[in-house]
Structure formats: structure tokens, C-alpha cells
Amino acid sequence: MIEGQASAGKTPKLRYGMIGGGQGAFIGDVHRKAIAMDGLAELVCGAFSQSYDNTLATGESLGLAKDRLYRSFEDMIRAEAKRPDKPDFMVIVTTNNAHYPAAKAALENGFPVVCEKPLATTSGQAAELACLAHEAGRLFCVAYGYSGYPMVKHLRDLIAAGEIGDIRFVNGEYPQEWLMTKLEDTGQKQAAWRTDPKLAGISNCVGDIGSHIEFMTAYLTGLEIDSLCARLDRFGPGRPLDDNATILVNYKSGARGVYWSSQVAAGHDNALRLRIYGTKGAVEWFQETPNTARLSLLGRPTATLSRGRDPMSPRAQSLSRIPSGHPEGYFESFANIYSTYIAALAKALRGETLTPADLDFPTVDDGLRGVRYIEACVESSAKGAVWLKME
Fold this sequence. Notes:
It is a single chain. This protein is α/β, with parallel strands linked by helices and 391 residues long. The protein is built from twelve helices and 14 strands. A hairpin with a 5-residue loop joins strand 11 and strand 12 (292-297). Helix 1 (27-38) packs across helix 11 (330-349) and helix 4 (99-108) packs parallel to helix 5. Residues 1-9 have low confidence and may be disordered.
């Protein structure tokens, strides 16, 4: 197909504030660029760093007024909640330990939230945020960023339509090599906080990347985990948190699965891959080549599906932005999540009823389930890789 699809509609531009994402951070700039891609919301205020100088420098580079740059997220939320031109939602892109207090403060002051994953560092905190969001009717998105790819949407619809039959087995893997050495000892910021329990929580590898396998499997298939058996490894000498993990999974449907995540796997960059096997066929999707997928149907040649070239489900096609052969990637996936969330929020602000299609973004309930999954993996491993029921 030659035509691309425009994902932006007639949604009026909303306003947002950002907590975290100052100079030297990674994911905050991803969120800002993704939001800007469709022009549906503008950044109006920020508490970008624990360093006020960093916040000021970041705000100046983004063209924000100095009186809307704050020393702490608490100061920002209190002050912005009183403004007539207050933000319509808050984006939280801090280290894991600050997700809960920042999200709680935002919800309690009337703001919908987009929060990086994991939602919190304990399931108790995550459950509290879920309750607050539901009781207040605040839209809450957890940024599992890979679910916005059009091909992921197409495979989800294909699986739901029964094209590969009843699912028997899932193989999910997410290997990286970037922590093969003690990078955290060199002052590298991203490595330092992810390997620090005070900032990351109880898990590094499972919490940081293994949680994507759990979410993506649930999103694509609808399968619910019944029980799991996890072995978490610490190969980095003296490293307090896991850097490799192998997890056996039993689903409530009777299907089985194996998840492997690693940050010490030589030769791998960001190699999230999902293979889903059913009674009629199988699908395979690889994050580093996200515009294509393999479809193997019993008795038929294996096919390579291509975004932009091959017909896709209506939802997937609506999020495909440019013609075939022009790769859409990480930023576009995040932008698709944001365009959906912002459109839903605008609709809610107008008092309109939201449909299930409006809510096709990772929710606070997905975030809660993800934190419970991380805790179950850590507990199973600590007890000698025993089988545990998921609550």
C-alpha cells in the first residue's frame, strides 16, 4: 500500500506536566517526542529532576516558563492543581521508587496519569493506585511501550479471531548484553539506578525487561497466569539484583509457557521476541523488526506479514502511519499509545462515554498485575525456584 494513515484526529490539544525526564535521562525524552508526534498535547510544566538546576536547564531547553518549573513533584502538583490552565494529565518518568508517591499525589489532586512501568515497587502500592484511579474515575496509563506497534495490534486481533486456534504454548524472550560488565561501577546513570534496590525495587532484570514479556503475552493472547516457577540469577559479581531470569508458566487455560530475560546475553541489543503456538498455527514477532511478523498455519506455507503492504485489522491499520518499506519504530509505538490515551481523555473531559476501543492502552490494572508478577518471580526464586500460585 502506498497510502499512510494519519493517527491524529480532531481532538483538541490538551496540556500535560512531566515528573522526571531531566537532562541525562533516557525515557522522558521518548515520551515527549512521542506526545509531540501527533500534536495532541503540549508540555506546560515540569519537575524534571531532584536537581533544580537540571530542571531549570531542561525547562529552558523545552521553552517552558520559569514559574512552571518546580523543585519537587509535590510542589508542582499542589501549585498546578490551583491554576485555571492546569495540566489535563501528568506523565511520570522517574526511577521506579518515585512512581508510587508521584502517581498518588497526582491522583489525589485530580490529575489523570501516565506512568512508566513498573507501576510501583510493591503490589500494595500498586493496588492502592489502582483503587485511587478507579474510585476517582481517573484515566491511568502504564507505559508498556511495545504494545503500540500496528503489527502487535494485528496479531492480537488475529489471535482473538481464532486464526491460530487454542493456544498451547508461549515462548517469550528478552535478551540484552549491556550489563555483561559492571557498568554501574563506571558512573553510567541508567545502569546505576537499575541495579540499586533503593531505586529499582526488588528486581532489576524481571522488573525492567521481563515485565514486558508478561504484559505483551497477556495483551496479545488474553492468557492469565495460574502459577509460575522462577529462577533469578545474579551473574554480575556483587550485584544485589537479578540480571538474568528463567520462568516457567502455567496459564489458567491449560496452556504453558517459558519466559527468559537477560541483560548479560552477548550479541543481543533489545531482542524482545514472542512465539505463540496454537492448535491451528503459530505467530512470531520480534521487536527489533517490528513491522513484520511470521504466521505459520497448519498445512500452509509460512508467511511473512508486512505492515503497510499486507491487509491488517482495522485497528492496526488505523495506527499505521507511513507506506510499506518505511520502518515505523519505537517512537511511533509510544505515539500510538499516547494518541489513544489522549483521545480517550479528551472524550472523558467532554463527558462522553468511553468504549472498549477507546481504552486500548495499558491500564493501571495491567500495571498492578505486572507488579504482582515481579513479586511472584522474586519469591519463587528466593524459595529455591518453587511453583507459586499467582493471586
